[in-house]
Design a protein that fits this description.
The chain is of the alpha+beta class and 694 residues long. The protein is built from 25 helices and 13 strands. The protein has 3 domains: 178 residues, Multidrug efflux transporter AcrB transmembrane domain (Multidrug efflux transporter AcrB transmembrane fold), CATH 1.20.1640; 222 residues, Multidrug efflux transporter AcrB transmembrane domain (Multidrug efflux transporter AcrB transmembrane fold, Up-down Bundle); 121 residues, 2-Layer Sandwich (Alpha-Beta Plaits). The strands form 4 sheets. Strands 2, 3, 4, 5 and 6 form a 5-stranded antiparallel β-sheet that branches. A 4-stranded antiparallel β-sheet has the order 10-11-9-12. Strands 1-7 form a two-stranded parallel sheet.
Length: 694
């Protein structure tokens, strides 16, 4: 490695020029990357709802309804006019209302009350609208112009469009505040006014390179787009800071700056790589998820940390060597006080804290696995947002209803009639629009006009549009989906296809709950292996992983004790992210403790370690904490907001355990990983310490 580092510093102008070109190219590439805000698109391709939806889109132009639009205080003729306006919106492929289920030319009082009230109640008209996902933002905006702010709309297409619009603005705000906070932290914790400039320049290059190289994926998820850059910033910042500090130390012992930099790189390689590798592995574990948002985020973050590591070992040395004179000229007195007193305080309380830590392990683990969850996108926007308020208003009048579409072979109308009768017997099914229900099984197809026929039948299939009295998700909804699927399977074994928001959410729940155990076990196992190889101890990896995992359990147990329902996706993602992002703190503290034990006893080593590493750990940890809470506070997207709060609280939990509990664990298990030295000075220190304890 030393020869490689020598080549880098000898060709620093060439290296900087290469990175300058790469940054320009990646900045251009970034503008070409699409962002997908629809969670249902990330279901496995072989999930039942995905297969059904794809086939329905091929067979029928309209697709599956993904929006509900409510117009208040309208007559039937006025509602029909609104229907025609909605159908003309670019991106709207289908609009279904009462006239598709029954004839509205007769008095409504003579019609089935339940059927009528699915679409028209107390002079409020509710339309089921299908919006092309490629045009949903513009389509939703156009619909809003037609209906005005006094009326309401909801559904997955509306939520996705709202997320697309709001998240773009919110990410910009979060990024600006995060950068300003990072600069402030660096000013406080470094000894030169110019050091934050160098660190931010290196981080900026790495972030742009990662963001632009995401083009290889074609598009990225909204989670990756919102959290990827700021997580890379917060997690990889300490690599650059560590290198600069090592370079400063080496310059004091070496007059030749190039040799000092090579020495700094050589000395830093092991620590930075072990820290970075555990982070990369933690993120890569997300790639094992069947739900594709996990792999999307995992590979982008892992790639980002890998790029940050390469940048630290190549670009940063060149940048530092070109600007180190500014580091010297702009030196300032340290703003951070000595943490020697803090080290003494930790040494005094570390055993009681560790006992408390042990007591919390089991209850936090049990509570973290007993949470209540949201699996889909139905609760992403609360009632403080327009989308959430609209949803609540529609549900107040028409109830918490949904629309499913069931597609079956069209030839046998007698079997279709039997299926329809069976579905009508399900209490939650409040209405069905189908050939046998709307037209009648006895009416030949040739008597229908093309528009009516194309809505009900394709060349091979007929479809049944089911209005169901059910929420978009929940145990009752999932039971309903299973019952409808079982009913369809009785009459059309292996030949039925069911789609709808509630159906997709059921498959989403089924998919991601199977991901949890696999992802966590692989992440823990892989991190354990890296720690085993780097620390050369069996006990230390157990202590470090147990410490961070307990921090994760405490973090995820808080919603249980506060009665908060959480998004399962955030719950799943944060486990790997918190492990990968915060295990670095434990590694840094442990390695410094081992180093200190070469020349001093256990108690002195604890005090020395805490005095030396607390600033570094707090620097990185405070940034990650603030970034998390910024995402939580600013984002109106419920999933992203909750993921941010989890990140902020989880980092705080990890910091507390690393700074207060881990020293006690290292102290008590010291003999299992500290080899005895023949050095008489060390022996005398140990003897003195033992006598003092007695």
């Amino acid at each position: 490695m030393r020869k490689a580092y020598e080549w880098v510093v000898d060709h620093r102008k060439l290296v900087i020029a290469f990175y300058a070109v790469a940054v320009i190219v990646c900045a251009i590439c970034k503008t070409q990357i699409g962002v997908n805000y629809d969670m249902n698109d990330y279901l496995p391709e072989d999930s039942a709802s995905t297969v059904a939806l794809d086939l329905m889109n091929k067979e029928f132009d309209g697709g599956v309804p993904n929006a509900r639009v409510m117009i208040k205080d309208v007559s039937v003729p006025e509602a029909l006019k609104y229907k025609e306006k909605l159908k003309k919106v670019d991106g709207v492929t289908d609009v279904t209302w009462l006239d598709d289920a029954v004839s509205v030319d007769v008095p409504l009082e003579t019609l089935d009350k339940d059927t009528v009230e699915n679409y028209y109640k107390d002079k409020n008209a509710l339309f089921s609208v299908t919006i092309d996902k490629k045009k949903r933002v513009d389509a939703v905006n156009d619909i809003r112009k037609i209906i005005g702010d006094d009326n309401a709309m909801t559904g997955s297409a509306v939520s996705t469009a709202a997320a697309t619009t709001s998240t773009v603005k919110e990410i910009g705000r979060i990024a600006v505040i995060a950068v300003l906070f990072v600069i402030l932290v660096l000013i406080i914790t470094t000894d030169s006014w110019f050091e934050p400039v160098i660190v931010m320049a290196g981080l900026g290059v790495a972030i742009i390179l990662n963001a632009g190289s995401n083009l290889i994926f074609g598009e990225i998820s909204f989670v990756t787009n919102a959290a990827g850059n700021i997580l890379q910033l917060a997690v990889s910042m300490d690599y650059s800071v560590f290198l600069i500090h090592r370079f400063t130390e080496c310059r004091k012992a070496e007059l030749d700056t190039k040799k000092a930099m090579v020495d700094a790189l050589t000395m830093s390689t092991s620590s930075i790589l072990s820290s970075g590798l555990t982070t990369v592995i933690g993120f890569l574990a997300l790639c094992l998820m069947q739900f594709q948002i996990g792999p999307d985020l995992g590979r982008a973050l892992a790639k980002g940390i890998a790029i940050s590591l390469v940048t630290v070992f190549t670009f940063m040395p060149c940048l530092i060597l070109c600007t180190y004179k500014w580091l010297d000229k702009l030196e300032h007195r340290p703003f951070v006080p000595s943490f020697h007193g803090f080290g003494k305080a930790v040494q005094k309380i570390m055993i009681p804290v560790m006992v408390l830590f042990v007591v919390l392990i089991v209850p936090s683990y049990l509570a973290s696995n007993a949470n209540s969850f949201y699996y889909g996108a139905s609760k992403i926007f609360n009632e403080k947002t327009q989308t959430g308020a609209d949803t609540a208003e529609i549900e107040k009048i028409f109830g918490k209803s949904d629309t499913y579409v069931l597609m079956v072979p069209k030839e046998d109308k007698a079997t279709q009639k039997k299926l329809s009768d069976a579905l009508h017997k399900i209490p939650e099914v409040t209405g069905i629009i189908s050939y046998v229900d709307t037209v009648g099984a006895e009416i030949p197809e040739c008597y229908l006009d093309d528009e009516t026929y194309s809505k009900l039948c394709s060349d091979k299939y007929t479809r049944m549009v089911l209005s169901v009295d059910a929420e978009y998700e929940g145990d009752a909804t999932f039971d309903l989906v299973k019952e409808i699927r079982n009913t369809a399977g009785k009459y059309y074994p292996g030949e039925w296809y069911l789609a709808g928001e509630g159906v997709s959410t059921y498959d989403l729940m089924d998919t991601i709950t199977h991901d949890m155990e696999k992802v966590n076990l692989v992440a823990i196992g892989a991190v354990f292996l890296v720690l085993l190889l780097s620390l050369k101890s069996v006990v230390l990896p157990v202590l470090l992983v147990l410490g961070i995992e307990t921090a994760i359990w405490i973090n995820l147990s808080i919603p249980y004790f506060t009665g908060q329902r959480i998004f399962y996706i955030a719950y799943l993602i944060i486990s790997s992210v918190q492990l990968g992002a915060t295990v670095d703190y434990a590694i840094l503290l442990t390695e410094r403790y081992k180093e200190s034990r070469q020349t001093m006893g256990k108690k002195e080593a604890v005090i020395k370690t805490m005095s030396a590493v607390t600033v570094s750990i707090l620097t990185s940890g405070s940034v990650l904490t603030v970034v998390g809470f910024l995402l939580g506070v600013i984002s109106t997207h419920g999933l992203l907001s909750q993921l941010g709060f989890f990140l902020g609280k989880g980092t705080l939990c990890s910091l507390i355990i690393v700074l207060f509990a881990l020293p006690g664990m290292l102290y008590l298990f010291d003999r299992t990983f500290i080899k005895k030295k023949k050095n008489p000075a060390v022996k005398q220190i140990a003897v003195t310490e033992n006598n003092t304890e007695k």
